[in-house]
Amino acid sequence: MAVEISVWGARGSIPYGTVDTSLFGSNTSCVSVKTAHQTIIFDAGTGIVGLGEALRQAHVKNIDIVISHPHLDHLIGLPFFSPLYEADVTIHLWSARRNALSDTKSMISEFIREPYFPIGIDQWAAKVSFHTFEDGQELGLAAGMSSGMTMSTCRLNHPGGCTGYRFECEDGVFCYLPDFERDDGSFDAATIEFLNGCDLALVDATYTPEDYEEHRGYGHNHWRAAGELCAKADVKAWKLFHHAHLRTDAELLAIERLAQSEFPNCAASREGDIYHLGCS
Ligand SMILES: [Zn+2]
Ligand SMILES: [Zn+2]
User: Fold this and answer.
1) Quick one: which of 141, 157, 212, 251 is 20 to 30 A from 57 by CA?
2) In the chain, what percentage of residues exceed pLDDT 70?
């Protein structure tokens, strides 16, 4: 079975939907990777709400969720992820340690609690395990990586840090790099090495080269920076990801055309996109 990669949310910062954003969608970061034996979810932005319903209908009972970093747009959907409220579901939640005191459980329990949300994590019915790793570590996901599959991690240049993920299997490599900014230095070298030769990458392309100038240091790329890094890393195909929240469909279509004129192997991620890696 080919590995199926589905985009449930491609927007950055905050979900802001209007009739002018329906083509690319307004839900924030969430991507699922489905293999013959596993479901891995990258980030819990608002896109995870629809994914939860789809998993429930498909009777999926074992789920790994890897979080890139605790910024709200990557976590805000989690309280509405319906498999958390099903007793026969097992969920493993993963994130990198961000400082000496933080672990995955405290990061999530500090956020999903009164007075911000009425249902705390102790009221989840699913069997939930929390895992904390150091950026750079390789993960053995709890649902069990089949032979030939690996999940590597890398620290990205973003305020407070962000984890990039690289999922490899026999016939393909997928990289997820939602929030980061080119630094023309050591971070770029590490990021290029991390992306090296992958088949498909979702890459932070929040800004245009023009509007980047007033957002320098915010921790996000413009699309040309993303494309140049992917070119240096010999990425086969890449998608502009983490679209600025106010960007309309018309603006994103124009950005996509422009980006494709320089990088024919790119496209802008749309909510609902499904890509395949040829893994068995
Ligand atoms: Zn973000
Ligand atoms: Zn962020």
Assistant:
1) 141
2) 97
Provide the β-strand partners of residue 168: 150, 173
Model confidence at 83, pLDDT cuts 50, 70, 90, reads very high
Residue-range definition of the domain harbouring residue 272: 3-277
Q: How many CA atoms lie within 13 A of 252 on its CB side?
A: 28
The CATH number of the domain where 33 resides is what?
Answer: 3.60.15.10
Count of structural domains within the chain: 1
Report the distance separating Cα 127 and Cα 84, nearest Å.
8
pLDDT of 28-65, one tens digit each? 999 999 998 889 999 999 999 999 999 999 999 999 99
Distance in Å, CA 181 to ligand 2 centroid? 10
Mind listing the pLDDT tens digit for each residue in 133-142? 999 999 988 7
Amino acid identity of residue 70, one-letter, is P
Ion ligand 2: residues, CB < 5 A = 71, 179
CA of 126 to the centre of ligand 1 (A): 27
d(CA 174, CA 168): 6
**Which of 29, 44, 277, 33 is CA-nearest to residue 139?**
33
Q: Which of 147-151, 190-194, 203-207 has the lowest mean pLDDT?
A: 147-151
- pTM above 0.85? yes
Distance from the alpha carbon of residue 278 to the mean position of ligand 2, in angstroms: 31
